[in-house]
Amino acid sequence: MSIKTLASREVYRNAWMRVREDDIERSNGKRGIYGVVEKDPCAVIIPLAGDTLYLVQQYRYTVQEVCLEFPQGGWEAPDVDIRELAAGELREETGLRAGSLDYLGPMWIAYGFCNQQQHAFLATDLTQGETDFDPEEHDLSLHTVSVAEFEHMLLSGRIKDACTIAAWGLYKVWQQAQAKGRL
User: Fold this and answer.
1) CA distances (Å), 60 to each of 67, 68, 87, 114, 161, in order?
2) Residues 130, 87: Cα–Cα separation, whole Å
3) Strand bridging mode 117-128 / 96-108
4) Which residue of 32, 88, 114, 168 has the lowest C-beta tally within 10 Å?
5) Mean pLDDT calculated for residue range 116-136
6) β-strand 31-38 against 42-49: which pairing, if any?
7) What's CA 84's distance to the chain center, in Å?
8) Tens digit of pLDDT for each residue in 75-117?
9) Which architecture, in CATH terms, is 42-104+118-179?
10) What's the pLDDT tens digit per position in 15-69?
11) pLDDT tens digits, 142-177
12) Ramachandran sector of residue 104 (left: φ over 0; alpha: ψ -120 to 50; beta: rest)
């Protein structure tokens, strides 16, 4: 390990995250501090029905914008079953139930300062049911776009959510591996 933790203290906590500050020593002997945002695992789900993708739109306070993204979120529980989490987030945010939920893989969201791991899933064989929004999701709305429209939105900068972009990239690689019989 190139960085040794000398001391650690929690400096902030709420229902969704914890922030700690660590006194560290680097391998070159230089000391410093490292701020770490701790968050429990989460999921991002690609709901795909033929050539149609389902996106959610909501206001994201941190960037002061209304954003389009794949359904995603966490349950603020460290030992959550990630498949159950993905199915639950899909249902909560879109009302969709997936007949098939394929695991695409794990991703670190922003490991330069945050320890949260996100798990990407492909949801297919979809049926519509009722949504079950969290109080924070009061303004969330569901949108459908074709795959071509979605990819244009990625390239034009209309969709800027890194988790959505990364999940789509992971899906495209997974799709190619499936087609070549590597999975």
Assistant:
1) 7, 10, 23, 18, 10
2) 13
3) antiparallel
4) 32
5) 88
6) unpaired
7) 15
8) 888 888 999 999 999 999 999 999 999 999 999 999 999 999 9
9) Alpha-Beta Complex (3.90)
10) 999 999 999 999 999 999 999 999 999 999 999 999 999 999 999 999 999 999 9
11) 999 999 999 999 999 999 999 999 999 999 999 999
12) alpha
Two structure tokens written together for 182: 């590597």
pLDDT computed for residue 75 by the predictor: 87
Domain boundaries, the chain: 3-38, 42-104+118-179
In 3D space, the residue among 120, 123, 99 whose CA is nearest the CA of residue 163 turns out to be: 120
* Cα-based distances in Å from 19 to 4, 15, 36, 157, 159: 18, 12, 6, 31, 28
Reduced DSSP (H G I as helix, E B as strand, rest coil) percent helix, strand, coil of the chain, to 5:
25, 45, 30
